[in-house]
Design brief:
Distance between the termini: 16 Å
Helix content: 55-70%
Structural class: alpha+beta
Order of helices and strands: HHHHHEEHHHHHEHEEHEE
Largest sheet: 5 strands, mixed
Strand content: 5-15%
Oligomer: single chain
Number of strands: 7
Shape: elongated
Length: 423
């Protein structure tokens, strides 16, 4: 569920394959040759079990869902492995995020994940690497056997069995052994070089794919921004209509009554004016809170830490705040995290019956601003269209980040957001 900067060209950083990288490629292939068969066997078992039990009370669906997550995990590992080995300029494999809330949104995101072309290309590269690894292991043992065979004249005379099963004079064994060693070594090196070429073709996206992904990400961010703005506009309209507007109308009516009584009953007029003054101050306070909900000025002036401290001090329930940031992020990133935390604390105070909240904010590796809000309330929070959690999701999506909520019945409720600082 993050947005990366798309590289300007699909070319990989290293232009040559030095001996160390070639040696590491051979080790990678050998390791995959050992464990790859087991991994592929587990994936095949999940698929077979899922299909076989699909019509047995739907139990097979659980295995098929697990298969999708397992395929994504293997694909993610393959992208990270290839990038670390060759230094290709390629982003991590990202899970398909939900475009709609609720169970239906999760099912659709799972379906999009199962047909993700980039994931399947990574899986194809993994399978090819496993096959190459099995061949590398066989060639290695062939090279060892050829090296030993070349010393045949030292402990045998006359004729000996050649590599192809025919009998030859033992004096020719060193030549056949050396040729076997050279051929096996050449095969291993060739497989390693071929693996690099295939990995570059499958893992590194071409320019067209990069532009397509950028358009898709930008469209999703734009949709999130539009939905977030619509939810925020609705909230402002509701707050003005239900809060400030009736209070101002009451102030006007009270002043009108005071104007009528000022000549005949000055004492009652003074009480009405005092009441109007109190209501005016309350309206000013509500307008100030409403403006703070649109944008917190302290966020620009003193940063996210100070803004969250002020937010925690106004909370109706105790908040344990733990903010550790080395430097500042972009205005949009900090605003998205701030309003996500503010909405979470509001929901906890209104709906969760929580007695305390814990807020943790970190600036993580990769220049990502991460925050987690957890309360000890009753749980059961769900993303409803137009609701507070939907507003958080849309605002974070518009900033190019990710949003996750875990709220089982009985609690606790935890919400995590991650926003790239360069958003």
């Amino acid at each position: 569920m993050t947005t990366q900067t798309v590289p300007s060209a699909p070319a990989d950083k290293p232009r040559t394959a030095p001996p160390l990288r070639l040696f590491m490629t051979i080790l990678h292939l050998a390791a995959l040759g050992v464990v790859g068969g087991g991994v592929i066997g587990v994936l095949a078992a999940l698929f077979g079990t899922g299909v076989g039990l699909l019509f047995v009370l739907g139990i097979g669906i659980v295995f098929l869902v697990g298969l999708v997550y397992a395929l994504y995990g293997v694909g993610w590992f393959e992208v990270v492995r290839v990038r670390g080995l060759y230094g290709f300029d390629v982003a991590d494999l990202q899970p398909r995020r939900r475009r709609a809330p609720g169970f239906g949104g999760w099912i659709r995101s799972l379906g999009r994940q199962s047909i993700d072309g980039r994931m399947w290309r990574a899986l194809a590269n993994f399978a090819i690497a496993c096959i190459f690894g099995a061949l590398v292991i066989r060639l290695f043992w062939g090279m060892v056997w050829s090296a030993i065979y070349s010393f045949t004249p030292l402990f045998a005379g006359g004729e000996t069995i050649a590599p192809f099963g025919n009998l030859i004079d033992a004096g020719w064994a060193p030549l056949f052994g050396i040729l076997g060693v050279v051929a096996a070594a050449a095969g291993i090196i060739g497989l390693a070089l071929l693996h690099r070429t295939i990995s570059r073709a499958l893992i590194v996206p071409n320019r067209e794919a990069e532009l397509t992904e950028r358009v898709r990400t930008t469209s999703a961010q734009r949709e999130g921004a539009v939905r977030a703005a619509d939810v925020e506009r609705t909230r402002i309209e509701r707050d003005l209509h239900d809060g400030v507007q009736p209070r101002l109308v009451s102030v006007g009516m009270t002043l009108g009554l005071a104007q009528q009584k000022i000549d005949n009953d000055p004492t009652a007029a003074k009480e009405l004016i005092s009441e109007a003054h109190t209501s005016t101050k309350a309206a000013i306070t509500e307008l100030r809170q409403l403006a703070r909900g649109i944008h917190a000025s302290v966020l620009d002036d003193r940063g996210l830490d100070a803004a969250l401290s002020a937010l925690a001090s106004r909370s109706h329930i105790p908040v344990h705040l733990d903010v550790r940031m080395d430097g500042r992020c972009s205005r949009d990133a900090e605003a998205a995290v701030y309003f996500s935390i503010a909405e979470s604390l509001t929901n906890a105070a209104k709906h969760s019956r929580a007695s305390e909240c814990r807020v943790v904010v970190r600036l993580r590796e990769g220049n990502v601003l991460w925050a987690r809000v957890e309360d000890n309330g009753m749980g059961g929070a769900q993303v409803q269209p137009g609701g507070g959690l939907d507003g958080i999701s849309n605002r974070v999506l518009a900033a190019g980040g990710t949003f996750r909520i875990d709220s089982p019945q009985g609690g606790p409720t935890s919400l995590e957001v991650s926003v790239p600082c360069a958003s």
